[in-house]
Amino acid sequence: MKILLMGNPNVGKSVIFSRLTGVRVIASNYPGTTVGYTRGFMKLGEEPDEIIDVPGTYTLEPTCEAEEVALRMLDTGDVVINVVNATNLERNLYLTLQLLERDIPVVVALNMWDDTRHRGIHIDLDKLRELLGVPVIPTVAVTGQGIKELVEDIPKAISPDSPARSRDERWAAIGSIIDQVQRVTHRHHTWRERLGDASVKPLTGGIMALAVLGGAFMIIRLIGESLIGYVLEPLFDNLWAPVILRLSELLGGDGFLHDIVIGKIAGGEVNFVESFGLLTTGLFVPFGMVLPYIISFYLVLGLLEDIGYLPRLAVLMDTIMHRLGLHGYAIIPTLLGFGCNVPAVLATRILESKRERFIAATLISIAVPCAALQAMIIGLVGEKGGQYVAIVYGTLFVVWIILGIILNRVVKGFSPELLIEIPPYRLPSWRAVLQKLWMRVYGFLVEAIPIILGAVLVINILYILRVFDAIANFTAPVVTGLLGLPKEAVTAIVIGFLRKDVALGMLAPLGLTAEQLVIGSVVLAMFFPCIATFVILLRELGMVNMLKSAAIMICVALITGGLLNLIL
Amino acid sequence: MPEGEQITLTQMQTGQSGTVIQIKGGHGLVNRLNSLGIRPGKRITKLSSMIMRGPVTIQVDRAQVAIGFGMARRIIVEPV
């Protein structure tokens, strides 16, 4: 049996999904967290049943890619668990009635049931069951309340003989249901609601946005630097370095195997950044430099997501984003891109038009450096002085703006307007935040580290085979002439296709000036997406648009790098 | 009802409430707003509007919805 979890965006489908299947999925407090679908299994009877976490949809008449995914899924399912936000019954029932009109059994999970009480909402459950003609189970997904009852009632799901209605008839039917089952008592605004209102007003909202983003940035750096300075560097220097030195002796201090495993060691000291062996740089880059920032970035992002701040930022940024051919909601994929470009490009599905998705994906790939690359920029460029890090970020920001304005003019079509539901502020549960953090860190560990080690291996083999020398001589006019970098820097750009963090690390042993490092970082960030992002771009944009996007990236990277070389 | 009392959502004052009279737009727009519960006859309250033709945020039932300026201009409201 195939069970579909369907409902409006941001009603808690993903949390219920995790409860039912034990499969952990990313859940946040904003509409559109789930843009693809996730499947899991649970056992109701003898055979395991497949459960699918369908992206949120307001209606079965789709208005964006994520809703189209939802509609396509509906035709493949056997039962629908319709997750309904109990605090906003009227609007949620629209989808419910549409589902009941279809020939598929439905059971309703009335989620956020605990919220109804302090919001002064009283719902007559028995009456609602009678009027809808299907089982209705009150649930509180985050605490697990009602999940057992929901599971028990899945076999009781039925498809009532509901007539096909027009839109107006549906609303009339909903009006009649609401009159019979719901009573709302008046109550005063809570401080959370006041804060919510203030954050979408121009003045107070602007001040709050600056405070939140500034604070987020400082906390990310503080946690990242502390983890590196107090935990990871001491671990590598005091525990791992002696092991490496001992191993180096065992391998004879030289030779093919030594170069690959340990790399270059000079003067009895291990330089984890520059030695470029599998067990030195290959481990230090992911664990000693990148992981701390992955942890700190995703901790802060997770908090902002679960509090429900991101849609408010979208409202504030809407006017600016329109200049770039996007609307405010594009700020969410953009922020995700500062962690990793892969989920960011996927998240562009919350945007309505192909045009917007092309512009957003291209801008993210070019001007939004992922956490891994940023960690390396902060680590390597930051050593030369904070002002150089600022130049890197400043350049990327200016490119983001200018390229966005150009794409808005050049790409055909127009961009739709912002239309989003703003969720209430919620106090995030630490358990949920840490669980989400762990999923993302785990994702980094299993997906990135093999590629990082592979990249270091490939680099060493290509060095030994002298392939890089050939490439370096061939591309010298561009790399040296246009960008002002030593010709060997091209190797970093080539490896950037595998992993940008490793690639930037390759610039470290070249003894670059601060200006050259800035140019190298900017070009590396913009030139071409890493292989993981490349695959996702290809899938999401299609071949033709992917090629267009890639051509834009290469041109813009060379122009920006050339200009920086002239200015700096 | 008198014509003069009908204004667009963008012309409403922050904090003011009103009833949606009409959505001046194609099927797509009406459909999208409708699915968010914004439809003729619905009582709404304007919570805020951004400067420089930014989005308008409204309260409809117990949900808050942010609506782009161009879209908000096509929602005709009768203030109460």
- Distance from N terminus to C terminus of chain B (CA atoms, Å) equals 13 Å
Oligomeric nature of the chains: heterodimer
Question: Looking at the structure, what is the overall shape of chain A?
Answer: elongated
What proportion strand of chain B?
35-45%
| CATH class membership of chain B | Mainly Beta
- C-alpha-based Rg of chain B, rounded: 11 Å
Share of β-strand residues of chain A: 5-15%
Q: Looking at this structure, what is the CATH superfamily of chain B?
A: Ferrous iron transport protein A (FeoA)
CATH topology of chain B: SH3 type barrels
What form of chain B results from the Cα inertia axes? globular
Can you walk me through this structure?
The complex is a heterodimer of chains A (568) and B (80). Chain A is an alpha/beta fold. Chain A folds into 2 domains: 2-184, Rossmann fold; 203-567, no CATH class. Helices cover 62% and strands 8% of the residues of chain A. Chain A contains 24 helices and 9 strands. A 6-stranded mixed β-sheet of chain A has the order 2-3-1-4-5-7, with helices on both faces. A two-stranded antiparallel sheet of chain A has the order 6-8. In chain A, strand 4 (79-85), helix 3 (89-101) and strand 5 form a beta-alpha-beta unit. The longest helix of chain A has 49 residues, at 202-250. The model of chain A has no long low-confidence stretch (mean pLDDT 93). With 80 residues, chain B is of the alpha+beta class. Helices cover 16% and strands 39% of the residues of chain B. Chain B contains 2 helices and 6 strands, in the order E-E-H-E-E-E-H-E. The radius of gyration of chain B is 11 Å and the shape is globular. The model of chain B has no long low-confidence stretch (mean pLDDT 92). At the A-B interface, helix 3, helix 12 and strand 9 of A face helix 1, strand 3, strand 5 and helix 2 of B. Strand 9 (419-422) of chain A pairs antiparallel with strand 5 (63-67) of chain B, so a sheet runs across the interface.
